Every structure is written in C-alpha cells, then in structure tokens.
Amino acid sequence: VQLQASGGGLVQPGGSLRLSCAASGIIFNLNLMGWFRQTPGKQRELIAATGLGGSLYYADSVKGRFTISRDSSKDTVYLQMNNLKSEDTAVYFCNSNPPTTRLWGQGTQVTVSS
Fold first, then answer.
1. CA dist., res. 4 & res. 52, Å (int)
2. pLDDT by residue for the chain (114 residues), tens digit each?
3. What per-residue string of b and e applies to 42-70 under the rule 16 or more CB within 10 Å gives b?
4. Which residues of 14-27 are buried (b: 16+ CB within 10 A; e: fewer)?
5. Phi, psi (degrees; rounded to nearest 5) at 87
6. Would you give the distance in Å from CA 19 to the centre of its chain?
7. Which of 64, 69, 36 is nearest to 50 (CA)?
C-alpha cells in the first residue's frame, strides 16, 4: 500500500494547482504529513509539512505561495500551489514526515511552462 499523490498537470507560470493525497487506512496521524518534490538529478526534498500542535513547515522556495492543509474527515492532505514558477516543475510526492519508505508512491508530475 502506497500513498498516491494526484492533481498534477501542465500549468502556465503564475497559475495554480491543488494536489491531493488520500491517506485513508494508511496513516493514522495526519498531523505528521509532508509534501516532497524531486527533479532529475536532485534529491527528493521536503517542501511542506504538518506538525504536532498544528505547526506548519514550508521550504523557503515555496513559502508564501504554497499551502498545506488536511481534511481529517476524508483522511486527505492537500497542497495548494499558487503563483507557480518554472522552477516548481518536479514530481511531487506525499508521505509521512519523517517519510516512511514503504509508502512512497509514483508521485504526480507538475510542469510549469508557457
């Protein structure tokens, strides 16, 4: 069983996308979830995460543009991405934070291009 991110696609610079990650039956604690991304030749990086007590983390590269949220009634975590830039082009993954190896899915491709 893996966590599958969805909602990626092709978007123009300045556009928006919302990614979803359904964790039903997999993760008991949506308070410890993260969104990661990876580009060819680079390590997968954590870009947004939820923490205990409602704390949130954002990488500097996405701060002010991306928002992580969760819907406990649906066991789903979201990543709202606004004002997308070409450098946001990557495969996006969700996982627990810290990540659990067996839960890595295939991710969802986000391409920002005009």
1. 23
2. 788 899 999 999 999 999 999 877 776 677 789 999 999 999 999 999 998 888 899 999 999 999 999 888 888 999 999 999 999 999 999 999 999 999 999 999 999 999
3. eebebbbbbeeeeeeebeeebeeebebeb
4. eeebebbbbbeebb
5. -75, -5
6. 7
7. 69
